[in-house]
Automatic annotation (TrEMBL):
The keyword Cell membrane applies. Belongs to the Casparian strip membrane proteins (CASP) family. It comes from Salix suchowensis. This is CASP-like protein. Residues 14-24 have a biased composition (Polar residues). The chain crosses the membrane at residues 42-61, 73-97, 109-136, 156-177.
Length: 179
């Protein structure tokens, strides 16, 4: 039986030409666009923020949103999504400016848990608001008495905010699972 044996070949450390000054920023292969600390991650955070602010401002501009619990829940969830996305966008901007990777295990756990909570709340609020909007528009036929266009716009913006929050959560969760 012929079995091949692995041979070990030592590899020398390449010498540096700049006198040992090794301050170049490190780039990992695991820094996929969309993860924290990347330009794609910043773009996702800013889009989450913009769509959540739009949903919040459109819904809050109506005078009768507090009368429906689902619409009030949408305002609260959109506010939470705005705050979370803005804070993480600031962290992403800082990480990009100082050229640091945000792949610390504890930071990724915090991002994954926060993204999971914020995206779940936003999705649930958008679904509840969509249900009430369909009830008002189709079943009760009372759109003339209500602000159906604003309700539908705010609900659509909340769904779009969730669609942009979902990749952030999935990438952070994947990063945790691949460790």
């Amino acid at each position: 039986m012929s079995v091949s044996h692995a041979s070990i070949h030592p590899v020398e450390d390449p010498t540096t030409t700049d006198g040992g000054n090794n301050n170049a920023p490190r780039v990992r292969m695991k820094d996929i666009q969309g993860m924290p600390g990347t330009k794609g991650g910043l773009a996702l955070r800013l889009s989450q923020f913009i769509f959540a602010v739009t949903a919040l401002s459109v819904m809050a501009s109506t005078s009768d949103f507090p009368s429906v619990t689902a619409f009030t829940y949408l305002v609260v969830a959109a506010s939470l999504q705005c705050l979370w996305s803005l804070c993480l966008a600031i962290v992403d901007i800082y990480a990009l400016l100082v050229m640091r990777s945000l792949q610390n295990y504890r930071i990724v756990i915090a991002f994954a848990v926060g993204d999971g909570i914020a995206s779940t709340l936003t999705f649930a609020a958008a679904c509840a608001s969509a249900g009430i909007t369909v009830l008002i528009n189709n079943d009760l036929d009372s759109c003339a008495d209500n602000h159906c266009l604003q309700f539908e716009t705010a609900t659509a913006m909340a769904f779009i905010s969730w669609f942009s929050a979902l990749p952030s959560f999935l990438l952070n969760f994947w990063s945790l699972a691949s460790r």
